[in-house]
Every structure is written in structure tokens, then in C-alpha cells.
Amino acid sequence: SDSAFTISGGGGGGGTTSITVTSPNGGESWAPGSTQAITWSYTGSPGANVRILLYNGTALSRSIATSAPIGSGGSGSYNWAIPSGQAVGSNYKIRIMSTTSSAYNDMSDNTFSISNAPPTSITVTSPNGGESWAPGSTQAITWTSAGTPGANVKIELYKGGVFSSSIIASTATAGGSYNWAIPADQASGSDYTVKITSTTNGTVSDTSDSNFTIFLGSAWTWGDNSFGQLGDGTYNSSNIPVQVDGLTGGIAIAGGWDHTAVVKSDGTVVTWGDNTYGQLGNGTTTDSTTPVQVSGLNNAVAVAVGDFHTAAVTSGGTVVAWGLNNYGQLGNGTTTGSTTPVQASGLVNIVAVSAGMYHTAALKVDGTVWIWGRNNKGQLGNGTTTDSNIPVQVSGFTGVEKIAAGQNYTVALKSDGTVWSWGYNADGQLGNGTHTDSNIPVQVTVAENVPLENVIGIAAGVYHTVAVKSDGTVWTWGNNLYGQLGNGTYDNSAVPVQVSSLNAAVAVAAGQDHSAALKNDGTVMTWGDNTFGQLGDGTDVWDSNVPVSVSGLSDVFDIAAGPYHTAIVK
Predict the structure, then answer these.
(1) Which among 31, 48, 262, 265 has most CB atoms closer than 10 A?
(2) Residue 519 has what pLDDT?
(3) What CA–CA distance (Å, rounded) separates 441 from 413?
(4) Is residue 302 within 8 Å of residue 312, measured between CB atoms?
């Protein structure tokens, strides 16, 4: 040699110079005409560029790239647009080599396929986000598969992204379904996902796209308990949540003047509290401090509670109601009360119901609203002040997706995120900047000709209204004597004002002089009157004009408020 040369451990820190194929590296199935990422890692200094070759068995099939950048930080990639005419086969490998030294090269450890068959995959289809399943119930976990994922899969439960338990170690892939008997003691939570993985190829796996909920369906209440409306077997009021006696499987809750109702996952409805007018629906007029089952009702999907009557939507799209009927609020063409459910006349395709003091409102699947009962303040919204003991349609009003009945007024949320109201307006609870009653819908506005928008939930109290927007903020209007508007003042407002320091809300409730919000973390905030402990924060303060946290609650998924008590299901 004319000059000296060096023998060293390689560049970049003394390690060995190398290139290693990372993908495809065995088992992949790529389709002609698709674009796939070829990836590699490298150490040392193999050069600035690499050549990428395709082999079929030991024979060179084609050059994929004659000079591709090596990459940076020890890794590189190249997006290969596989020719549509590429021959199919299951014996392919990739070789990657430095363009400056062929000594630095590597080939896939195992073969991959080029195939017109769909790529091997597993896809979770249920639960895939938003489901609510009860402990002790049996639920179908389902999936689809493509390619050759193997004969069996394992199914695992994750909570908050952390492994929780094995659901089944091995079940047939081809079945696409597994009936999971959820343990009765399974912890409640709204952050569960399911992961399904091939038992023979761990890279073939999928997890639920979004969280689902496992709920115990227990009910908790706080505040006034003069008639046993807390359901804990006593008449003792409470300023912290107490558990409703023996109730599980609840999916929705509603609060009335002095009674409470829950619809259960099996379609039954249970009620407790005042029963002077048969509003508990069990065929008696005897109050109950613990839940009693509504007679003959086993297909309910929603429930609403008024002052002295109760209503439910059935799975068949009809409405049944029971209790006081002095203004025709049961909707069956009479003014005779009933201690058991009677069907409201002529209603089909109903998806939601809400109950006010002496009137009831129902929402049809076509977005129209139908109301019956007392109409002295125009709360039926049909352009009159005439009571009706059968459902009448709100005049010229469509596109509604949620409804809420207040004491003598009604509120509706349209699918475009705007809010409309009608009826009594002495305290500005219609939210249109006036104090004038209206017997037809008027739009809620934050200022003149500026509508309240992006609303996702509403609640109507006695003299005030609450709304939650898609950004998680809460807005209120109407009477504010006890700070129930939550904006740090005691001033009434005929237009929406924002609740102080509250975000991430997903649902709201309104009592007589207090309000509540459910947050996306499953906790509850309350504000307003606390005379009976209805704020649930464990204090005896008279009221709060800003939100306070309810003591010891988590994993809540539905909230409701009576005039002087608050209730949740978790």
C-alpha cells in the first residue's frame, strides 16, 4: 500500500456499521397496486444512500430503488408503489444495501406475500365506543377478520389503556363473536376498551376505536328527603350523596317535585318518594322510601318526572304516563288520574319525553314536538293558551333533537345547535331578552339577533334554564335568586350567561333554585340553593353562586334534579 490505512470499529461512536431490514420482515401480505412502507435501521456509517431489491426465493425479481436516502437517526424508510402487474407469491424478501459498499446489506429474515387476497387483519366491531354495559349482564364482543389471522384469538379488557383482565384466552377466529358474561363485581368505569389478538401471530391485533362504559347502574341522591325521594330507606335529608337502596342496572334517572324514577337496563322502571297521586305507578297511593316497580311496564327506554306525574317512552315508540291528571297531563283524553301506566293517545315513533309541572312533552323521530296538559302560559307551544288532554303539535316546529319541560314553560334543542323555548317568561327563562310569555317557540339569544349556538344539552328548572355547549361550557338564564345561574352574581338574566370556571361538561340538570353539570371525567358540579343540601358538597352553606364539587362521586353517566334534591346514576 502506498499509504497507511485504518482498521477501526466503524463510524459514529465506534459501533459496527450495519443495515437491518425491519419491514417487510415476515408474514406481511401486500397487494399489487398498493403503496407500502419498506423500513430499515442502521448503525455506523453505511453511506448516504441505499439500493432496495426484491427477491422471489433466491432469484432477483426487480430493483425497487437504485438510490434511496439512508434516513436519519438510525432509521430509514421508502414508500414502494407496488406495480399492479407484480406477480403474486408467498416467497418474497427485500434486500437493502449501501450504494457505496455492498458489504453493508441485509435481507428480510422471513418471507412475505404479494397477494390479491385482503391483508391479514382483525377489526373490533363491538364494543367500539359509546356502549354502556352492566356488570352481571352478558354482552356480545364482535369482530371481523381478513386474510389468515390464525384459527383462534384471545380477548383482553383494558381500562384507561392499561391491561385489566383476560376475557378469554382462546376462541375461534371465524366465529366473529364471543358472549362475555361480565362479572357481577366488575368495576365501573367509562374508559374501557377491548383488545383482540391472534393467538398465533401477535402482530395481528385490534383495539376498540373509542372507550365504552361498564356501569353498575347504582343510583345516588342528596338533598331534601321529606317524602323519601332520596330512596335510601329514610326520611333524613343529606348534604352528601347517599345510595338508593338495592338499585342496580339503572340506565337513566329523572327527578320530580318529591319523587324520583329510574329506567333499568331490563326495561322496567322503579320509583320512590311521594305517591299522593299515584305517581310511583305501582297501583297504590302509598309513599315509599325505597324503589318500587312500576306496574306492567317492562319495555321502557326513557323516563321523565313532573311535579306529581311520571311518563315513560317504550321500545315501541309509544308514551305511557301515570299519576295526577287534573290538566290532562297523562295525555289519554281524560282528566282522571291513574296509579298505573296509561297510554298517551295517538303517539308513535317517540324517542324522548319530558315532564313539567302539569304538562308533558314528547319528541318524535321526525324531529317534531308533541305536548299535552296545562297551557295557561302557552307552554304547549301551539299558539293558544287552551289546555289539552291529548297530544298537540308545537306549531311549525321541526328539526328538534332534545326537549326539556320546565314548570310552566318548555325548551327545545334543534339539530343545528340552536335553542328555542315557549311558555312562562316572568324571570326571563325563555332566554330571548324579554320577560314576555310566548305560546309559540322563540329563539334563545345571547344578544339581539345573536343566537345561542353549538348547544348539545338542555335542562329546564322552575324559573331558570341551563344549556351545555359542544366546547364543554355551560350557559344559564332566568331567575338567579340563589345563584343558580352560577356566574358569581345573584342577578337575574333574560339572556344566557356563562357559568364561572366550568368546562368539560357533557350534561346538565336544573332544580327549582339549583343547577348541576356532569363532566366528561364522570364527576358532578352543582351551584345555587343549598337549603336542603342539594349541592351535595357536604356543607351547610345557604347557597353558592359558583360551581362546587359534589363529594365522593366518580364514573357518573346520568344526572337529574328535583326542586330540592339531586340524583345520579353511575
Answers:
(1) 262
(2) 96
(3) 11
(4) yes
Q: Burial, 231: exposed, middle or buried (Cβ in 10 Å; 0-12, 13-18, 19+)?
A: buried
Closest CA to 441 of 514, 383, 399, 491: 383
Cα–Cα distance for residue pair 487/474, rounded to 1 Å: 10
d(CA 542, CA 550): 15
Distance separating alpha carbons of residues 310 and 60, to the nearest angstrom: 78
* Residue whose C-alpha cell reads 330571548 in the numeric block: 432
pTM equals: 0.72
Paired with 36 in beta bridges are: 80
Q: DSSP class of residue 281?
A: -
Predicted confidence band at 8 (pLDDT cuts at 50, 70, 90)? low
- Predicted confidence at residue 115, as pLDDT, reads 86
Q: Is residue 317 a contact partner of residue 294, using CB atoms and an 8 Å limit? A: no
Reduced 3-state DSSP string for 457-506: EEEECCCEEEEEECCCCEEEEECCCCCCCCCCCCCCEEEEEECCCCCCEE
Q: What is the C-alpha separation between 235 and 491, in angstroms, rounded? A: 34
Judge whether 483 and 528 are in contact, CB under 8 Å: yes
Phi, psi of 238 (to 5 degrees): -145, 140
* The Cα angle at residue 193 between residues 190 and 196, in degrees rounded to 5: 165
Dihedral pair phi/psi, residue 48, rounded to 5° = -80, -20
Q: Which strands form 138-146's sheet, in the order they lie side by side?
A: 121-126, 138-146, 177-181
Contact between 271 and 294 under an 8 Å Cβ cutoff? The reply is yes
CB 431 within 8 A of CB 465: yes
Residue 59 has phi, psi (to 5 degrees) of -95, 135
Cβ atoms of 253 and 260 within 8 Å: the answer is yes
Peptide bond into 24 cis (omega under 30): yes
Q: Cα Rg for the chain, rounded, in angstroms? A: 32
The answer to whether the CB of 367 falls within 8 A of the CB of 398 is yes
Q: Is the dihedral of CA 162, 166, 167, 168 positive or negative?
A: positive
What distance separates the 2 farthest-apart alpha carbons in the chain?
Answer: 116
Checking if the pLDDT of 15 tops 80, the result is no
Instruction: Dig out the grid coordinates for 381 from the structure.
Output: 307551544
